[in-house]
# Entry
Amino acid sequence: MAEKKDTQVKKVAIICAKAAIEDVYATLVMANGAVMEGMEAKVFFTFFGLDAITKKQMMKLHTSTVGNPGMRMPGGLPFPTLLGALPGVEAGVSAMMKNTMEKLDIPPVDEFLDMITAGGGEIYACKLAMDMFKLEKEDLSDHVIDVITIGDFYAMAGGEGSQVIFT
# Structure
């Protein structure tokens, strides 16, 4: 009988490339869940995902109303994309989403980063995106360990029991 291999996930490497609330929170929830389960968690923010760890932007995230096929109106009806283009609609939808998250006791971005790093998770920023957007490490949350290349991140992400997740 062949020996059974342990296939349990031991490490997650999560890449966040978008700044919409739903994308950033998916990343934060997965990373926090990983550290709570005793897994190693490394999170790499790139392109517009950098907004989630940029001091000036991290508390100003919004939800995407235009071109979001999952967007629903109250009652579950599909949200007409055209409505999302009207002035104030995106801000209103974002405010409703943040209000609902607050009622559910979902922490804001900075507190989520506190929880992830307190649990041993590591936060990184993409060097290429930082250069493109002319950002410096000082512009980022203190939770960010380093600004690295994707190659550096992939080197950290490897090993048996590792998963790479792109949000």
About this structure: The CA atoms of residues 9 and 161 lie 5 Å apart. The helical segments are 21-36, 81-84, 89-103, 109-118, 127-132, 150-157.
